Amino acid sequence: MATHTLSVLVENSPGVLARIASLFSRRGYNIDSLAVGPTENSEISRMTIVLNLDGHALDQVIAQLFKLINVIGISEMTDTGSIKREALLVKVNAQKSDREKVAAVAQKYNGVIVDESDVSLTIEATGPSIDIEALLKSLEQFGIKELVQSGLIALERGSITLADRTLSTSRVAISDSHSATADYQN
Amino acid sequence: MSNQVTGAQSLVKSLEHAGVEVMFGIPGGAILPAYDPIYDSKIRHILVRHEQGAGHAATGYAQVTGRVGVCIATSGPGATNLVTPIGDAAMDSVPMVAITGQVPSAAIGTDAFQEADIRGITMPITKHNYLITNPDDIARAIAEAFHIAGTGRPGPVLVDIAKDALQKMTEFKWPTNINLAGYNPKTKPDSQAIRDAAALIAKSKRPVLYVGGGVIKANASKQLLRLAELTGAPVVTTLMARGAFPDSHPLHLGMPGMHGTVAAVTALQKSDLLITLGARFDDRVTGKLSTFAVNAKIIHADIDPAEIGKNRFADVAIVGDVGEAITALIPALETEFKKSEPDLTQWWSQMGALRSKYPVGYDHPEDGSVSPQYVIERIGAIAGPDSIYVAGVGQHQMWASQFVKYEKPRTWLNSGGAGTMGYAVPAAMGAKVGAPDTTVWAIDGDGCFQMTNQELVTCAINNIPIKVAIINNESLGMVRQWQTLFYNSRYSNTSLDSKRIPDFVKLADAMGCVGLRCDTTGDVDKVIKEAMAINDQPVVVDFSVFRDAMVWPMVAAGTSNDDILVARETAPDWDSQEL
Asked: Which residue range or ranges hold the ACT domain (chain A) (predicted)?
């Protein structure tokens, strides 16, 4: 199993999320996270999909996605070629005696305290997945009451945009990374 | 405002602009506004007896003519009855536009009377689909639907239109250009891939042209013939490609796959190069995938990039129209062959020997009953290669593929991918509408026939004189065959008693058709000729045949093509073959 991040430009039309979800479901691809939102162009939405691939090559997923009429462009976001961020809101137990320690941990990971009560603090943080994980691990000692995380979002480094590249490159993705699918009987 | 029309009028004008000459459908509440302008339209509307019949008729029409077939139904159950033919069209890449009425937009999502989310339901089985709630969007959606259905890899497109969108006023404006950012199928193959393919072919000692239904979709039979004769390689035609290459041609080894010929199956298995043209490495062709053609390199030409590498890695991928690919390949090969012409003598001596030793065949039953294979073979011989043959699904389908000799594309229709029982009668109806001057034989089973035969009423009333051969073995024959082979002859729920009930001759008569019966081998030719002579009415022939005839050869599901059996517990005599 290997993790891949795909940025997918789709037409901002009704049902497009269902089409993507339906495709992943019926072809048996596992989604780790999915983030959808508007883009600089009001007619286009951008999905960031984190996938764990097993048995199916990334190329096959991309080719199947491209068959959806509403899909305009796809690019793999590599670790070195892109900025990847997650957002986190976490509510941590924080009695008076712990408050300073919790605040120090949050600060270490560029977290911001956005809400507080007598017994808890709520921290907001954004960062690479690895930092978010580390922050959560450090907060465990105080007791995490509740948390919510966004899906990963990603943007390529440099001045080039996915929209630019989409209109100029071939939509055909073929490589030698294919692994045979399992035999089955019916 | 001369262009002010209702949404319904806009829909019908759009269909006229799209060049529709016929559509198959049934009205109902939500689609009713559309049926008013249909009443005045020059488009022929054929009122079917079940929406499934409308869908299969549209696909039958599309497969014979190469045009986009059209079916129309109301919301809810009308729309869900189209689900099977839509799925069928998706599996076999048949261009079809399905139009459905939807409850008024204000009622959508309220579980209104006859409401079904048909867009959601058909999302996985359409190439694309639409839900239209604004009458201004109707013309563009119809134009796009026809464009998407008929170009690239063909497929079904559904347009669901809310009732109020059909009733409201709009301005009719037929779009002059269609520009879909996310849809631009690549038809022109990459020239480097063509050169790579030519180089592989020139080096190959055991090449096979593995021909799929895409060759028929691309109208590329003529190009295929030139390529085959240039390479001299053996040709196999899949179930969806029967007729793409003449059965009488000396390079043809027949159909590969689960019930393919020994020569075709073995050629794929022993090949060093599969020249794959518009085929998709379906499990019914490959058998156990990990043992399929293990020593072969793969050239894969297909218009759908997602097919390449889906089941089998392609050494050379040619994405594009298969006709253009073949056309480009021919001069590239001629250049290669100037350097060195491959010698296929050894390969042909092996494959030729297999072909002559293991032709598809059958025995006449010892009990004197009629052989189903004989009936089908005689229909093919008497009706000839200019007729169109439409099969249901099961044993009769395999025999119709094996024992009718196909010489021309678009003369063999069947439900290959989905395996839809009940396909034959309505698809034959659509085929006959598309080719009214051609003899159309539905070769059907007694099980299949009882799923959709009511469309014979439609045929009788609308002067669509198809011919139906019921290969009546009073069983769900293919299932029974599997029960014989794999379930210890325990025939759980496969006996239909259809030599007793219904009386197919009376049923045919009641539906306005001529009903004929044939119980003896000696009468087979006479009855077929009798049916051939009737051209002003649909004809149904009840051929009472041997119950336990089996389809051979067979590669059991999930096993290797190497384990092909020519008869029960009988493998080919490999020892006498030098392979």
From this structure: 5-82
CA distance A166 to chain B (A): 10
Q: Catalytic one among B9, B13, B24, B51?
A: B51
How does pLDDT run across B31-58, given as a tens digit for each residue? Answer: 999 999 999 999 999 999 999 999 999 9
Q: What percent of chain B has pLDDT over 70?
A: 99
Q: Chain A contact for B131, CB < 8 A?
A: yes
> Which CATH number, 3.80.10.10, 3.40.50.2300, 3.40.50.970, 2.60.40.1180, labels domain B372-544?
3.40.50.970
**CB distance B58 to B85 below 8 Å:** yes
Which tokens belong to B345? 């003598």
Name the domain count of chain A.
Answer: 2
> Does A179 have pLDDT greater than 80?
no
Q: Does A60 touch chain B (CB under 8 A)?
A: yes
In sequence order, what are the beta bridge partners of A60?
Answer: none
ipTM given for this complex: 0.92
What are the strands, taking DSSP E only, across B522-577? Answer: 539-544
Q: Do A162 and A70 belong together in one domain?
A: yes
In angstroms, the CA B103 to CA B77 distance is 12
| Pairing label, strands B207-211, B235-237 | parallel
Q: What angle do CA B203, B206, B209 make, to 5 degrees?
A: 95
pLDDT in tens, B529-567: 999 999 999 999 999 999 999 999 999 999 999 999 999
Average of per-residue pLDDT across B432-442: 98
Residue B143 CA to residue B120 CA, distance in Å, equals 21
Of B182, B290, B306, the CB nearest to A63: B306
CB of B304 less than 8 A from some CB of A: yes
